[in-house]
């Protein structure tokens, strides 16, 4: 729940000890690190008074310093021993206790001593130090300090009070950096991509590479000056600090008081040696995140290997070879995107031989039909994927599938224990148990710090994908995502693929005002990528409230859509070329999952596909003008209809080949792109309150329908239009009793019948006979 927003004066005091909160031996923090960290905040909100720039490690030096420092702070009468005091007027929307808890957990992992005190109505004082006994180099102390300060700042809302005019001053749109970009837009409006693309220096700069992924952004309506201004904006907005805060497990999802740690899902197995978690530990709410993650990964591997080897079987002893993954939104779209990538990947084909994976997401009964029509329930494992285990659609579909199992195998609780798996948040354990699931062996947890749309790297993707393709392939996917995480957190911003894409996203949306963009993978195996990005980005950045408690006054949150090329070319590309301007994102591969070259054809099918991948961005950028058309002899009356203005922005992403690994890379690139845009816009990319109202109203309607069906009452909804529509529906659907469907559609009836009515035998002859995924000969 929200705490009422309070207006505090925040004093960040870096303490040299003697305050009574710390043990005797304390080292002070590096002051230069503090000032650099705070620099990106709005100047007006900060008053920093550095009184020293040295770093003290020896006890003797520290105590002599303490004395001098004490005098200085004493003058301010705050009673604290400090070498640096930064004062900031803030709003804080969380409990002091909760902040203290965060810091206490930080203390366990980083040997940081922090104490938070409410000094008076408007002043919070934060005291920090590091155990002297815990030897740390300068760099490590710097890192620790960064973590502590960013943890705090993630909860701080700069000033403005209740006065919205005052609050407005915090909006990024009021900063000089934003205004410089606004002015710069008028220069860009004078340019055309035709000319920009001739600039050798520009083209030499406008690309970035990492681990085989190549981003070319020279077809954006941007110059090197634009990029400089965007990096200035990034610095102003503390982009790097916000990225660090995310990776460090700070509670940057401030409306839900949660960390955002999907990057941990693909982190190294402890002890960690990579550059992301230098100290090998990541603690959130007292739990060691990486230990938890790897415990579940091991559990996923054990379980899915056992199913695939036949060690775990169904209720009647048959091998489990069909998987129906029941879930919606983030509990569906990511896994489906990954499944489609692997379906045609050679290793994927081999590993999935003899198995099927289907997704049941929509509550539409037709989706039930599609999911299980021809499957043998005795060979089917139902995976219920729901973070909350309350989502109405998923739970009805889960009950439907449970009934389907019972219909065929009898109403025995062992049927559920042997055929139903749950992937859910640890806080849903009781609900999972109540459903009848074996929570010891068939329950796979994930955590509050994994958002639904960021969850494919957890058991959400891990269970269905490993069941179908084996755990090793899922692990390669995680490794690909991890490779991008490393790049994102370590590469300089100017060569950082997700950062560049995110900054250009802000440029296109907020300055050039292109409100939609197209994801165009030139790979049929990526056919579900656009749908995944749609949820990832639109649920993340479809917001308007900033962390200052005031709405944005600049455009945020694009409409994302897309289709694989070349299919899209024959569908909506007409609009891309001649209608509204929409930035386009072309994704292609050096090699196909399946190259195809038939006799007599000069080029392979993949080259043919890629010819389009390269041609379309230039067609969008260049266009075709009237002179060119006239030179081609086009008649004057058709010139206007055949003119392409061009100057339409796009970028091109190239990767070596679509494998599990590169699929992970793509996923992480887009996840981080979304976060970058949210960080610049000062919105929370990790909550989704906007879906709540519709859910509530659907419940109201369900109650109306119940009353009308059961009691024949006329529905009185909130307005006459809704009442009329609902009554029309109830009246005219009366004549479609389920009994009629019973004969017409056996499967639909199955979902309503019990095993006593069993009429439809499952298909036979699918037993794998111990062939580890290979069909028996
Ligand atoms: O659509 C709203 C939403 O909460 C998504 O964010 C989420 O991915 C989806 O519903 C499913 O939620 P759950 O996994 O809790 O069933």
Keywords, separated by commas or semicolons:
about 775 residues; alpha/beta; Rossmann fold; 7-stranded mixed beta sheet; 30 helices; disordered C terminus; binds 6-O-phosphono-beta-D-fructofuranose
Instruction: Write out the distinct hetero groups bound to the structure.
Output: 6-O-phosphono-beta-D-fructofuranose
- Give the assembly state of these chains: single chain
Enumerate how many helices there are, as a single number. Answer: 30
CATH class of the domain at 183-250 and 492-681: Alpha Beta
In the CATH classification, which architecture of the domain at 183-250 and 492-681 applies? 3-Layer(aba) Sandwich
Largest sheet: 7 strands, mixed
Mind sketching the topology for me?
Layout: E1 6-15, E2 26-27, H1 31-38, E3 47-50, H2 59-75, E4 82-92, H3 96-110, E5 112-120, E6 123-131, H4 138-153, E7 156-157, H5 164-168, H6 176-188, H7 193-196, H8 200-205, E8 207-210, E9 213-216, H9 224-236, H10 239-247, E10 283-284, E11 287-288, H11 289-309, E12 322-326, H12 333-343, H13 346-352, E13 356-360, H14 365-372, E14 380-385, H15 392-409, H16 413-419, E15 420-425, H17 429-434, E16 443-446, H18 459-469, H19 471-490, H20 497-511, E17 516-521, H21 529-541, E18 559-562, H22 573-578, E19 584-591, H23 605-622, H24 626-631, H25 636-642, E20 650-657, H26 660-681, H27 692-711, H28 720-733, H29 738-744, H30 746-750
Parallel strand pairs: 1-6, 12-13, 12-14, 14-15, 15-16, 17-18, 17-19, 19-20
Antiparallel strand pairs: 1-4, 2-6, 3-4, 4-7, 5-6, 8-9, 9-20, 10-11
């Amino acid at each position: 729940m929200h705490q009422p927003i309070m207006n505090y004066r925040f004093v960040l005091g870096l303490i040299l000890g003697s305050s009574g909160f710390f043990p005797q031996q304390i080292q002070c923090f590096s002051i230069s690190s503090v000032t650099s960290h705070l620099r990106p905040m709005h100047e007006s909100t900060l008053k920093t008074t550095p009184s020293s720039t040295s770093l003290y490690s020896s006890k003797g030096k520290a105590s002599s310093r303490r004395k001098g420092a004490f005098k200085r702070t004493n003058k301010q009468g705050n009673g604290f021993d400090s070498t640096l005091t930064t004062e900031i007027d803030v709003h804080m929307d969380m409990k002091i206790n909760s902040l203290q808890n965060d810091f206490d957990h930080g203390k366990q992992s980083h040997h940081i001593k922090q104490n938070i005190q409410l000094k008076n109505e408007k002043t919070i004082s934060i005291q920090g130090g590091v155990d002297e006994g815990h030897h740390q180099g300068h760099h490590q102390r710097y890192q620790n300090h960064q973590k502590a300060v960013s943890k705090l700042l993630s909860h701080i809302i700069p000033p403005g009070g209740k006065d919205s005019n005052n609050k407005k001053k915090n909006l990024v749109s009021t900063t000089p950096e934003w205004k410089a970009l606004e002015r710069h837009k008028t220069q860009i409006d004078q340019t055309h991509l035709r000319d920009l693309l001739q600039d050798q220096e520009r083209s030499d700069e406008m690309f970035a590479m990492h681990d085989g992924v190549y981003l070319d952004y020279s077809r954006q309506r941007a110059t090197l000056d634009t990029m400089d201004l965007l990096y200035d904006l990034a610095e102003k907005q503390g982009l790097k600090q916000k990225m660090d805060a995310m990776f460090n497990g700070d509670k940057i999802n401030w409306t839900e008081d949660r960390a955002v740690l999907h990057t941990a899902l693909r982190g190294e197995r402890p002890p960690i040696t990579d550059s992301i978690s230098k100290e090998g530990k990541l603690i959130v709410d007292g739990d060691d995140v990486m230990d938890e993650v790897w415990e579940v990964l091991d559990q996923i591997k054990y379980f899915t290997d056992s199913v695939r080897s036949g060690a775990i079987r169904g209720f009647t002893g048959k091998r489990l070879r069909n998987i129906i993954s029941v879930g919606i939104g983030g509990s569906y779209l990511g896994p489906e995107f990954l499944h489609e990538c692997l379906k045609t990947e050679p290793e994927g084909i081999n590993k999935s031989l003899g198995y099927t994976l289907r997704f049941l997401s929509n509550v539409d009964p037709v989706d039930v039909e599609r999911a299980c029509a021809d499957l043998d329930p005795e060979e089917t494992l139902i995976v219920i994927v729901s973070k909350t285990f309350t989502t109405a659609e998923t739970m009805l579909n889960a009950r439907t599938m449970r009934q389907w199992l019972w219909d065929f195998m009898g109403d025995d609780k062992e049927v559920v224990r042997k055929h139903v798996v749950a992937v859910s948040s640890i806080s849903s354990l009781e609900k999972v148990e109540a459903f009848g699931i074996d929570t010891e062996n068939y329950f796979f947890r994930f955590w509050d710090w994994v958002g639904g749309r960021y969850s494919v790297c957890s058991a959400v993707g891990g269970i269905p994908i490993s069941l179908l393709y084996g755990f090793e392939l899922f692990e390669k996917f995680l490794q690909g995502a991890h490779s991008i995480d490393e790049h994102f957190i370590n590469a300089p911003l100017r060569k950082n693929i997700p950062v560049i894409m995110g900054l250009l996203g802000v440029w296109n949306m907020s300055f050039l005002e292109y409100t939609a963009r197209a994801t165009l993978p030139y790979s049929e195996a990526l056919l579900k990528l656009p749908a995944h990005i749609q949820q990832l980005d639109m649920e993340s950045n479809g917001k308007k409230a900033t962390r200052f408690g005031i709405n944005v006054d600049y455009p945020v949150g694009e409409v994302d859509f897309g289709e694989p090329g070349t299919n899209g070319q024959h569908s909506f590309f007409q609009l891309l070329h001649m209608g509204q301007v929409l930035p386009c994102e072309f994704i292609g591969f050096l090699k196909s999952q399946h190259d195809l070259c038939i006799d007599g054809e000069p080029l392979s099918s993949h080259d043919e596909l890629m010819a389009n991948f390269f041609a379309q961005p230039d067609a969008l950028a260049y266009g075709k003008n009237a002179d060119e058309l006239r030179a081609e002899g086009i008649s004057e009356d058709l010139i206007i209809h055949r003119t392409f203005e061009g100057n339409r922005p796009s970028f091109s992403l190239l990767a070596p080949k679509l494998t599990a690994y590169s699929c992970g890379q793509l996923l992480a690139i887009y996840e981080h792109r979304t976060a970058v845009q949210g960080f610049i816009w000062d919105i929370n990319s990790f909550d989704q309150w906007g879906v709540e109202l519709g859910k509530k109203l659907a419940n109201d309607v369900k109650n109306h329908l119940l009353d009308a069906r059961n009691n024949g009452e006329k529905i009185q909804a909130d307005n006459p239009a809704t009442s009329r529509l609902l009554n029309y529906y109830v009246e005219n659907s009366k004549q479609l009793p389920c009994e009629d469907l019973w004969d017409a559609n056996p499967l639909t009836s199955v979902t309503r019948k019990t095993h006593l009515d069993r009429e439809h035998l499952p298909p036979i002859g699918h037993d794998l006979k111990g062939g580890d995924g290979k069909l028996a000969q």
